[in-house]
Each structure stands twice: as C-alpha cells, then as structure tokens.
Design a protein that fits this description.
heterodimer; A: 806 residues; alpha+beta; Phenylalanyl-tRNA Synthetase, Chain B, domain 1; OB fold (Dihydrolipoamide Acetyltransferase, E2P); seven-stranded mixed beta sheet; B: seven-stranded mixed beta sheet; 9 strands; rod-shaped
Chain lengths: 806, 339
Amino acid sequence: MNTTLSWMKAYVPDLDVTAQEFTDAMTLSGTKVEGYLAADRDLDNIVIGQIDQIEQHPDADKLIVCQVNIGNGKSVQIVTGAPNVKVGDKIPVVLDGGKVAGHHDGKMIEGGIVIKKGKLRGIESNGMMCSIEELGSSRDMYPEAPEYGIYIFPEDAEVGADAVAALGLNDVTFEFEVTSNRVDCFSVIGIAREAAATFHKEFHPPVVTKTGNDEDAHDYVKVTVKDPDLCPRYCARIVKNIKIAPSPKWMQRRLAAAGIRPINNIVDITNYIMEEYGQPMHAYDYDTIAGHEIIVRRAADGEKFTTLDGQERTMDKDVVMICDGEKSVGIGGIMGGENSMITDDVHTMLFEAACFDGTNIRLSAKRIGLRTEASAKFEKGLDPNNAQEAIDRACQLVEELGAGEVVGGMVDVYTKKKEPVRIPFEPEKINALLGTDISEEDMISYFRSVDLIYDEEAREVIAPTFRQDLFRTADLAEEVARFYGYDNIPTTLPSGEATAGKLPFEMRVRETAEDIAEYCGFSQGMMYSFESPKVFDKLLIPEDSPLRRTVQISNPLGEDFSIMRTTSMNGMLSSLAFNYNHRNKNVRLYELGNIYLPKALPLTELPEERMQFTLGMYGEGDFFTMKGVVEEFLDKLGITGRKTYDPADKKPWLHPGRQADILYGSEKLGYLGEVHPLVADTYGIGEKAYVAVLDMPQVTKLASFDRKYAGIARYPAVTRDISMVVPREILAGQIEAMILQRGGKILEECRLFDLYEGSQIKEGFKSVAYSIVFRAKDRTLEESDITAAMKKIWNGLKSLGIEIRS
Amino acid sequence: MKQKLQAIREEALSQIQDAGMLDRLNEVRVSFLGKKGKLTALLKSMKEIAPEDRPAFGQLVNEARAQIEEAIEDTKKKLEKQALELQLKTEVIDVTLPARKNHVGHRHPNTIAREEVERIFIGMGYEVVEGPEVEYDLYNFEKLNIPANHPAKDEQDTFYINKEIVLRTQTSPVQARIMEKGKLPIRVIAPGRVFRSDEVDATHSPSFHQIEGLVVDKNITFADLKGTLEVFAKELFGENTKTKFRPHHFPFTEPSAEMDVSCFKCGGKGCRFCKGEGWIEILGCGMVHPHVFEMCGIDPEKYTGFAFGVGLERIALLKYEIDDMRLLYENDARFLKQF
C-alpha cells in the first residue's frame, strides 16, 4: 500500500511531521512503513519563469536565446533547444546551482544533475527550462505535458513561485506493509485514521453528502444476486449525461503519486475511490446492459468471456459473473467485460460497488490466471458496509467534477447485514495479559482514537465492521498495547514454578556424533531433504528397491526437489563432488539429517523420520580410517562391546568387496564402505571415497552416558602370540570371534599384529598373527591356566581349517 | 698398611677429581670400591695385621671408604648437573617451526548458532523438544488459527504432499503438539528444519531452520515476553544490545510483535549491515492466541503464554557476515573450516 503525505494530510490537517518521524511512529503503533521516497529528493532551486523574449542563436540553427522573467523583477538569459516554447509561456526553470532529477529522455540520475551557468555556442545561459522527465516524472502522470519539450504551466501560474510545489512534487510517498488482518488499512482513509491516532490529531474523513437528482435508480436497473454467499452485497447507482474529460489536477496528482496513471474523470474517480476507501468499483456502459438488469451468478463451466483488456478467458462454475438479461458483462471482483466497458462516447453508466467473498476471489483469480488491482483488494475480504459509502462518495465526486448527472437512489442487494462486534471491556484482564497498569480511561481513549465505540452502560467495546480483526479481549489488548506503546510495557521474567532446562537424550547423542566427527577431522555439512528421483539411478539402486518408495511433493520447485530422500548418500556424494571439483584436498564431511520413510503409499500418515549420521571422505585415509571413526563414536556412547561387520548385504553404491553392515549383537547400526568406482565416477569424485552411515535411532537406543569405574587391573597379564596360516576366505572377524569365544573368562583381549599374503605363503592362504592377552581379576595366572586356554583356542581355530604355526 | 691405605685414598680422591665424565667416575668407583677394587683388596689383606689391631684398622678403612664414597657422590652430582645442562643446551629447538595439527573438523555455522540459542534457553529453564518435519496440515495450520483457505496458507507457499500432509512451513506446529500433551507449565524451545516454496538464491532457500519458543503458565504476560527476549538478545548479540518491539500480526498470537535488535556491527548508528537503519529485524513473537489454547485443550481463562520464532539462518548469516545463503548448502570445505 502506497500513500502520499499530502493525501493523508487531507484527512489529518494537523499532521505536521517529517517523513522520518512519521515512519518511526507509525511503525511503532502497528502500521509498518517499509520506506518512503520524496518526489523532490533530487530537485532544487526550480521556479516558475515566464518567457519575455526569444531570439535566434546567432551561431546555431537549433538553439534559441530566451529572456526569462523569474519574478521579483529578476530576469535570466537561457539558451535552449526546446522546440515548444513561445513568448509568454510559463515554464519550470532550474537556476544556476540548482538540481534536476534526470534527462529529458526519462533517464533518472541517482542524486540528480546539478545545473550550472555556462556558455552554449558562445552565448551565456544561466539555467535550464525543464521537461516533466527532467523533473523526475513522466507524461503518464502529467498527461498535459508535451511529448517532447518543456513543461508549460497554465496561464494562472504565479511567476517566481516554487515550480516543484506547483506541480505537487513536494510530496513524500510512503510504502506501508499492511498485515492481512488490517483490511481497513489498504485505504488512504484507514491509514489516515491510524496516523491521526498515532499523532493524537483530529481525523476528518471525507464528508459524503446526499447526491443525485429526483429520479430513482430502481427505475433504471434491477439487480438479482443468485449466490449471496459469494456476493454478500451489490450496490448500483446510475449516472447519466456523462461528459468525459480529464480529471482535475489535484486528483491526477494524488493518483500519480500513488502510481496510478490518470485517464479520464470517470476512470480516475473509480481509481480514486479504490485508493481512498479501499473499495474497488466498476463502471458499465448502461446502454450495453441488456434488459437493464444485473444478475450476479456463477459462471457456466467452460464459459468463455472477453475481459476489457481484450483477452478471451475461460471460466468455471466457481467464478462469479456479473450478467445482464442476456450475457455476461464482467467477472465479479476481478475485471469487467469488453462488451460493457465505457468508452469516450458513453452516455449513461452503471456504477457498481460490490462485496465478494475474499477466498473465492483469490482462488478464482488464481484459476483463471488474472490477478487485478481489484481482485487483490477483494481477496482480503472487504467490509460490505464500506461499499455504500464508497459509491456515494464516487457520485459526490461525479457531481463535484461535473462529470455527469447522478440519478437519485441506490439499488442495494444486501441480504445479511454485517453487524459490529461487541466485546466485553475487561481492563483488569488486559493489564494482566500485558503486565501493565494502564488506567481504564487511557484504554478507552485509545479505543476512541481509532473509532472503536465504548458502550459505558454495557461495558462493551463495539468494533465497527471495518475492523475485521477484533473479536475478544486479547484483540483489545493489542489495541491498548500499540497505543500505550510496546516500548512502555515493562520487561520482566516469567514468575511461577521453576522448570529444569533440558537437552533430550537423542540430542545429546547427536552432539556426541558432532564432537567425535570433528575430533576425527570431519566438518559438518548441511544437505537438502528433498532431491531428484534420478538419484536412485545414480546410486545404481535397482528398480524394485524399497528405497525408491518415496514421499513425493505434489508441488515441488522442480523435479530436482521433488521427493523426500530415503537415503542420505546422494547429499554426501554431491557435497564431496562439489569439493573435488573445487580442488579441495583431503575432504572429510559429516551430516546429521533425516531420511523420510513412508509407512504406506499413498501417504495416509506421517512418514517415519530417521536421523542419519553420515560420514564421507576422500584423500588421506581408507576403509579402516572410517571404521575407526565409527568405533570411536560408538565407544564414546558407551557401546563398548564387540561390533561386528558383515560384508554380506551388497549395497549397489558401494564397492562390492569393501563394504560392511555395522552390527552390535543382533542390532544393525548402519554401514560403511568404499564408494563404488562407477558411482564415484558418476558424481565426479576422482579419488577413492569412503562413507559411513549410522542410523541414529538405533544408535540412540543402545547409547548410554552412564559410566562405572571398573578398577585398574592389579594382577599381571600374560601375553601369548599365535601365528597361523589361514585360508584366504576366513575373515579376521571370524578368527577373533573364535579366540574370544574359546579364551574363557581370563581372556582380556586379542590383537592382530601381522597379516601377510604373498609368495612365501601357499596359494589360497594368508599368514595371520595375533597377540592374546590373559589376565585374572583376582590372582596371578598359573602357566596351567594359560596352557588350557590356548589349547581350546587352538582347537577352535583348527576347526576353521586354520593351521597353527606356533 | 696405613701408608698403603693413605696412598689408595689419595689416589682415589685424585682420580675422582679428574674423572670428568660419569662413565669414568663409575670406573673409578669400581676400581676402588668394587669387589675387586683396591680398597676391597686392602680389606681382604687384613689378615696380615695383628688381630688386636684389626678393629682400629678396619675403622680406618671404613673412614677412607666413606670419604671416597662421599667424594664420588659429590662429583656425580656435579657431573650430572653438567650433563643435564649440556643436554638442555643441545636440545634447543626453533619453536617457531610449524605446528603439527590434528586437523579437527568444524561445526556448521547453522549448528553453532542453534547450539548457542539452545544454551541460552536451557540456562533459563527451557527444555529442547522436536517435532516432525513432514507434518499434518492440522498442526501446521489449523491448530495455529490458520483455517482452510486462509491467505496465509498461500502466502507461505507451502509444499504439499497431499491435502492433509505438508512439509512444515514453520516450527510452530511443535507448539500445538506440546500444548496438546497437556503437561503444564510449559517452557520449551523447538529447533528444526522448515520448508517454503522459494527458489534458491542468495537470500532464499526452500529449506531453512527456525527455533520456536513457547511458555505457558498462569500469569504469563507480554512484559515477560519482552523481558525474556531481551535477555536472549543480550546473550546472543552482546550486553549492549537494545531491543525494539513493533506491533505485527500472526494468526496464532495476539497481541503479536516483531523484535528488532540494535545493529551489533554499528551499535545502532546505521551502517551497510543494517541498511542504515540501526536496527535489525530478528524474530516474530506474541501472546498465545486464546483460540489456539482452546484448540489445544488449554483453558485460556486460566493460562496465558507467549511464543516466538527465530530464523536460524538469519542469525547465522548476520553473526558470521555470510553474504550468500547458498554457501550453507554447498558444504565447501573452504567455507566450513572458517567456523
């Protein structure tokens, strides 16, 4: 919503503030000013001059030398190339040292252009005559300005006076951010009311007087509304003997400042009312209305209709149409029809001020792809009681401007009158909610300042229908708060029962993941939750994989963001690839983010969101580096027992021989592996890359921060090394499992210390050596204990086909 | 014999004095006091002395032994000290040579900002809670006083899964979920990811993060809201930070406000950072709307409360002067290592 200071001053005459003061105070009272722009910010020292004499420039065919009277008996000589001036013309003159806003071709220069006296082809020139463009505006806003040349003032302009003021350019346009609950503030009157209350000034809205001749509009037109739900009110008035002409300058200036191009008196009046009252209006050529009747009904499905912009559009049954006895003449609340629009030849017109259901207008405009100034207003849900005042005001302007003869009376179809809301006045509750001690009188004065009525007898506040945001005490509290001043409300801290601050367990586990990852050199990345369905192909995931069963966004930003991810792999690989492309070396990243697994498709309940701890790296380090990070993490969470690694489940995006599921007992915690060379290639990662994914809900289930001191061993340990020749397919994990199983209670740990495969070992075998440590808690071990345990281990290993060497 | 003893003693003392090195000193010790040492040999030759003289001679030998041992000990200490001094001298290093770092990783700036906000509120007795990112329309809109066809549902440009399920556009649905549980009083913050249908550019992202705050108890006031958020702003942006509350509109709070903080770069004088305004808009807040209470099963006649929502990216971008939101999702190591 844009409005000028001068227009607001028309209703708040005592408003005497700078633009900045206005901005600050209005923002604090709830009408946020986004910014303001002074039309004359780049104009300086420009007066109205009158050309006394014109001579041809002696050395230039296209230049003339003018003697210009600038008032107070002063005259200046100005050389110009403008073709349109003659002796006696009153023109804007920027004097030596003054500023204009741009060039005559309409190009604006930020900060303006300083005009200095100088010589043009040897002849002195002491200023410049200005075109409307040089003054920072355009012919759109000042239609009387010539197409090319100097702006000429009317004859009654005062020589020597400020030209900027005479053009109405000494004004400031404010841009307001009006919140959706304050429909009334999408109008100059609404904003002016707020301004008056904010600055404690008198508010003088337009006084609408009775208009019209002694005829009756009912004799001219009959109105039927078929769907009162979609059109709660329809007001129609008639104007005859229309004289189309330009509207007066004051009206043109106000519209121009609001960014609306003046056209003619009738169009300008409807636009003016839309700004002033926030009520869109429409004017139909009465003589095109068949049967002189208006029927408001739903469109037929597929109905074609040509709007006044000449476009044919297709309607559906939820669009409201304004029809006459035979045909549609307008789309209700959106745009009138070409067949009924007023032209310069119009003789009689039908003025419409209606009220439409906001939601239906919003949805209709969207469906037919036509959002207009009018629909933008209607979709907010206008006050039907505003329509009558607006149409009467329009007719008043028609009379004032001499634009036509207004027919008396108004045809009004208004089935369910909207009544003001009465709210109990409970000052103690308001103070209790705000934490203030504001007196009843002050509260009532705040209400009155914005035209809320206080019914003393009933102790109720009556909210007029233009205030569609007031229903209960909390709403009144806001009215009180904003005029008392949010700044004046004290600052306290909540009293009452103390509560314990708490980070939930799963978030502590997540913090541990972050800490460990970072200690291990991984930096945290952030990945999108949605991605392209193409990622499954990139990851070589087969067609029938459950990972392809995804939650799909019905209105995505594009295919690339259309499904909720079921694996965190694509995000990680894309980020590694980004780094690889940017030649970053030794990159280690981790992410904590959800995957989204639908329970059933199509989705009937919320999908399962599982937090994944994903690690990825390339450069230094290998599979076992990654495995180390995984174990550091699990150990830190108290998951200190033996983790096992199962290479059986072949994930297609990983190297088939370099991947494993991470198991703890029978619980699957996640997986790790080397990225499949084909996948790495697809993503553009030119090095071996490793990833690990831990399923956080599973990890969290097993995690614990409880610790118990186990004592430090008091009896000596005995170490035995065992060296063996092992069939190649037997995994270290199997050997360890056997040692652990057979070693008994006294086995403390076993540690691989040598692994060799090569020429000195027979084909199909490898040489493996373990250090086995025994210790008892309560005594020094005897040789016989060790021998017995070692024998069991040996036998166990032999049963796996392992040959013991020593 | 006595002369012999005297000679050994003198020889020993002289050799001790000349030893110069610890190894040599040890040799000296062995050659005099060892099993085959000269003094030990002398003691062994005691049988050549008349038995009645033996005790006196023995004492003499012991005295000599003690004297030699003491001399050895003194010299040893001296030599050890010299050796240590020499060692320390030769072990001097160039401490300005480069450090060997462990190359620890870095937290994402967003996480740093989130954890900082969490710390502040945990300190004030708030519990951190979470809610689903894929959410029912019921919680994301309806229970927050945003009924079907409310323009806010358009304005927020929601990603829909179907008519009932959306990607949450705000963390506010967590409010409704917590209130519905009915455990009072409530003091929670709810950080999390939210989604809006904005194309990716320097200032927009279709997914970003918010932290929601909710307090519900008897006698909670707007003044409490102001006080709480003032503490928060000072903790987050520095002790000298000022706050400004402006009236605003949110469907689920009444009265509602937006909070600005004085620009922490220029202190409020106006700079490029705050676009010359001296203030930076930081969050939206308000008193929980009585209708929201009703829909969540809390009696608005008995309880009041306040809620607020902070954009995490906004804080991260402001605090760390990050000028392009896309950096947050690119995960460039050169970006991440700066935090």
